[in-house]
Amino acid sequence: QGHEDTVEDVQFCPSSAQQFCSVGDDSCLILWDARVGLAPVIKVEKAHDADLHCVDWNPRDENLILTGSADNSISLFDRRKLTASGVGSAVHKFQGHDAPVLCVQWSPHSRSIFGSAADDGLLNIWDYEKV
């Protein structure tokens, strides 16, 4: 089974047209692989404490995935640290918004830099190597 509520966003793995991830209002981050069937490969329950609005897969490091949430935070996941049963947690949680995060996007030019936008009217630029 996939999501149990509205799916908010989907992103493909930069190196594979068969792998993608999705987030939704059920607070789950789900990784899929079309080569292995219809069931999720990894389903992270409670990836955040609220609905997830956005996800982005790092174009320079396919192990790193960002999620943005209605809990005003951004989480960085390393898929090498997640198990098929969904056990695992974010390797870092970024707090810099006072409202739901609506968009996260990795820089195409740097492995560690990404941007986030939220309902607070802010656009933040982050470098996870400097936190």
Quick structural summary:
The chain has strands at residues 7-13, 16-24, 29-33, 42-44, 52-57, 64-69, 73-78, 92-95, 101-106, 113-118, 123-127.
Keywords:
mainly beta, WD40/YVTN_repeat-like_dom_sf, Methylamine Dehydrogenase, Chain H, WD repeat, XY1, 131 residues, repeat, 0% helix
Describe the 3D structure.
By secondary structure, the chain is mainly β. It has a single domain, classed as YVTN repeat-like/Quinoprotein amine dehydrogenase (Methylamine Dehydrogenase, Chain H, 7 Propeller). The protein contains no helices and eleven strands. It has strands at 7-13, 16-24, 29-33, 42-44, 52-57, 64-69, 73-78, 92-95, 101-106, 113-118, 123-127. The strands form three sheets. It has a four-stranded antiparallel β-sheet, with no helix packed on it. Strand 6 and strand 7 form a beta hairpin. The chain is globular and about 40 Å long. The relative contact order is 0.16.
Instruction: Give the second-level CATH assignment, the architecture.
Output: 7 Propeller
Average residue pLDDT: 95
Question: What is the CATH top level name?
Answer: Mainly Beta
> In percent, how much strand structure appears in the residues?
over 45%
> Can you tell me the CATH topology?
Methylamine Dehydrogenase, Chain H
Count of the separate structural domains? 1
The number of helical runs is 0
Helix/strand structural class? mainly beta
Radius of gyration: 14 Å
Shape: globular
Strand order of the largest sheet: 1-2-3-4
Quick one: CATH superfamily?
YVTN repeat-like/Quinoprotein amine dehydrogenase
Distance N to C terminus: 36 Å
The biggest beta sheet is recorded as: 4 strands, antiparallel
Taken in chain order, the helices and strands follow as: EEEEEEEEEEE
Helix content: under 10%
Uncertain runs with pLDDT below 50, 5 residues or more?
A: none
- The beta-strand count equals 11
